[in-house]
Structure formats: structure tokens, C-alpha cells
Amino acid sequence: MRWMSEQCAFAVEAYFSNNHSYVAVQRAFHTHFGIKPRGPVPDRKSIVLWVENFRTTGSVVKTSSGQQRTIMMPENVEEVRQLILRSPRCSAHKHAVALDISHRSMCRILHEHLHFHPYKMVVVQELLPHDFQNRVTACETLLETLPPDALVFFSDEAHFHISGYVNKQNMCYWSGNNPRELHERPLHSDKVTVWCALLRVGVTGPYFFEEDNHAVTINSQRFVDMIKNFFEPALEKMHLGNVWFQQDGAMAHTARASMTVLRAKFPGRLISLRGDILWAAHSPYLTPCGSFYGDTSRQRFLNIAPQTCFS
């Protein structure tokens, strides 16, 4: 039962006035506050607590034994803000350790006082300052060099993991108990490597790089075999004229054996690193094969070369 300060003070006074008798305190409490028979009165434990508080603090009310909370003071909030601005990639836990405060307090400051929120980073191709100008130069060269009747094959390969991908952010399992569901996957999942070439009149491919029904790494020999045994027969069936071929600067593409075969097939019409028209490095978004990786990538591609790839 909660007692008022006046009642606690009377009980302490009665305790000292009645020769430290707890029973006498309870009887006096009955009479003074007009409590009915069998009504609630302070028990011995409560009276002892009030007396001890009075002896140690001079008050019957128990005072807080811990330090006053100062974590949310303006100077601490500003210190957290400066630390976050200096190292925005560190976790809240590391910042809390550095400032010697609890993780809970750190999160409260970040959310309630600073209104900061965690954002996930997206990994993209690193671009150097000169890469942007190289892209523009490559597009201008293509527009100036390619004749109006030119047909350009844009080629590339991609890896497709066949073990499946689970976005755990969108997975929920409602239950009264934790089902301990696990999604196990190997460290290096199985994948297939697929090559294709895009032309404004159609698609050549896909071609799977595999041996004995197992995916293999692309090297110059396998790339040459693909060109001779798959791409060249498909190209002959199409009966096209003034065909150009584009590829990026992957090592398998630009090896000596690969370049010899491609130059023989497309004399003076090879768009590649060390080709007849140089292809800018770090430029996957300039081709239809890589222009639709995402909205941001597509917009960057369309802003740089709207005519080169789709003409």
C-alpha cells in the first residue's frame, strides 16, 4: 500500500515517542488517522524502512541512490552528432563504446534527438573522374564513325546463381513459438555463365559456358570456341551486311587468340579495347545488355548515349 509523506512522518515520530515499539506505532496510527478496526496500517517492515531513511537522510522518503541521468543533455547529443558526422559508416554499437554510453541511449539519441536513420549501402562500379569523359568520347566516336546502315552486335555475359536467393527482409513466419527456420546455402553457390549478343533486329544466344553439364570459367580458348562454333554459324544464317561487333575489355575477350579471330571476322568493324574503335573502360551501362540493371543505371545510360545503343 502507498502511504503519504504525512503518514510516514507520523509513524517515525510515534516510533521514537513510544520507546521504539512497533505495536504502539500501529495503535497510534489507528487513533490519529481514524482508521476503522481491521483497517490497513503500516506493517513492521515499512516502519523500519521509514526509520532507517530518516536516520540516514533526514527524510522518511527514500531518495534515489544512483546518479542523475545526464545522457540526454544537449552537449552529449551534440557530441554524438559530431561523432556520427566524422564516421557515418561505423555502427551505433561502436559509437556507444567510444562514448562510454549504452547502446540503448545511443539509439535514443540518434532517433529521437538527431532524427538519424540507418541506410543500406549499394555496391556499384567505382568510377574515376576521367571515366565520365571517356564515356562521352566513346559515344561521340561511335556516332561519328558508324555508317547509317551499320548493324552493331552488343555482346556480354552474366552469371546466374541457381541455388536461389532469399530476401530475408521480406520473409515473415507468424507463430506462437520461434520455429527456428533456417535457409542454408553453400558458400560458393552453383551458377551458370550465359553469353548473348543483342542486335536491333534480334538476339543471338543464349550460349552457356559449361562442360559435362557443369559451369566453367570463361577463358580465351573457350571464348574462341564459342565465337567459331556458335556465333559465326548463327551470324551466317542471318545474312546481314555491314555488321559491327562490340565487347567489353574482359581478359578473355581481349586475349591475343580472341582478338585474332574477331579481327578476321570483323575487319575494321571491331568495337573493343584494342579494337578498331576503342570501348571506354567501366562502361557497362552504355550497352543494352547492361542498361537495365536498375533505374539509376538506366538513367545514367540514357543521359550519356541515347542514340548509340538503340539506333
UniProtKB/TrEMBL annotation:
Residues 6-60 form the DUF4817 domain. Coiled coil: none annotated. Pfam families: DUF4817. GO terms for molecular function: nucleic acid binding. This is DUF4817 domain-containing protein. It comes from Cryptotermes secundus.
